Structure prediction request, 191 residues.
Amino acid sequence: MLLSSFSGQPLEAGLDEAGRGCLAGPVFAAAVILPPDFSCAYLNDSKQMTARRRDRAREQICREAVAWAVAEASLAEIAELNIAQASYLAMHRAVDALAVQPTHLIVDGNRFKRHSTLPHTCHIGGDGKFQSIAAASVLAKTFRDERMHALAAEYPGYQWEQNAGYPTAQHRAAIRALGPTKHHRMGFRLL
Prediction:
């Protein structure tokens, strides 16, 4: 069972990213503040959920959250900063886009670039421990997947509608056969 809070503060925001290990596309991040009584029976780390459950959870999160926001860092920012720093940038953008100012941030992972005004705590595997981080995981993944599905229609053959830009055998075979697109992360080892 996921915990509703780490700090006990009512405006604690959970943060997570999606797409850090991909070969193509931007990195997305989400920030979510949930009400203390929030309950979603199948909410979990988004990687542990089916696509259908992620979509249902997303609807509920967007409807019932105190505040939520999704942001991204571009391919150019990933190339300039590196993927870790670009992920933090996307997370900061998501926090700054929240309609309600959080009092504390809980972040999935073991590292985070400190926000200029808000305290934070990192939690390895936090998306499987805390509801707000799991909710952020769901939003970041579903919004990023939507972007990759749209790009898949423009660039058929890479199977982004299935692999979302991750380094699957099929994706790498497509890069070999078709070459990289302008959406591939050229600083990454594509093959």
User: Anything to note?
Assistant: The chain has six helices and five strands. The mean pLDDT is 96. The radius of gyration is 16 Å.
